[in-house]
Amino acid sequence: MRKQIFILVLVITIIISCTSGPKFTDVVGKEWKLIEVNVNGRDILFDRNTLNSEDAGNIFTFNFDAQNISGVGAPNRYSGPYTLGREQAINMSPVRSTMMAPLKQPEKLRESDFFIYIQNIYKWDLIDTNLELYSKTENNADVRMVFAL
Q1: Structural domain includes residue 62
Q2: CATH code at position 100
Q3: Does the residue 32 lie in any domain?
Q4: pLDDT of residue 120
Q5: What pLDDT is stored for residue 93 in this prediction?
Q6: Per-residue confidence (pLDDT) for residue 53, from 0 to 100
Q7: What is the residue range of 101's domain?
Q8: What pLDDT does 5 receive?
């Protein structure tokens, strides 16, 4: 009987450890760089690999701290508060940004669209070593933003 209870406890422990999602502490305090944006799972609006190295720089970054997000668009800095929900849900407040005019932006991803996507984030996930943020466009299309360290 003791052996059966031990095995049951062991199996439950393994199941719980396997089903627990990523930990938010794994994404906090790191600078994430946008590597890809796609809309409705197919339209790639941004791919960092296709940018010239001088264009890539530090554009489209994302940081979480304990209460706020922050980062750089193209070229403006932004920040804003967020609140976490259950099961990797997140609620973003409107972001505020500096107001510099961009000299150069990636062709398919304007900074203003990036800020809309940031404000509409509703879920986060950590897939392998990438941070994925799920959002909506102004027209309610699904957006997936993938960030890497």
Answers
A1: yes
A2: 2.40.128.270
A3: yes
A4: 97
A5: 93
A6: 59
A7: 22-148
A8: 64
For residue 6, is it within any domain?
no
Overall number of domains in the chain? 1
**What b/e readout covers 19-45, taking b as 16+ CB neighbours within 10 angstroms?**
eeeeeeeebeeeebbbbbbbbeeeeeb
| Dist CA 96 CA 25 (whole Å) | 24
> pLDDT digits over 90-137, tens only?
999 999 999 998 877 777 889 999 999 999 999 999 999 999 999 999
Q: Tokens standing for 30?
A: 């790191």
Residue 8 lies in a domain: no
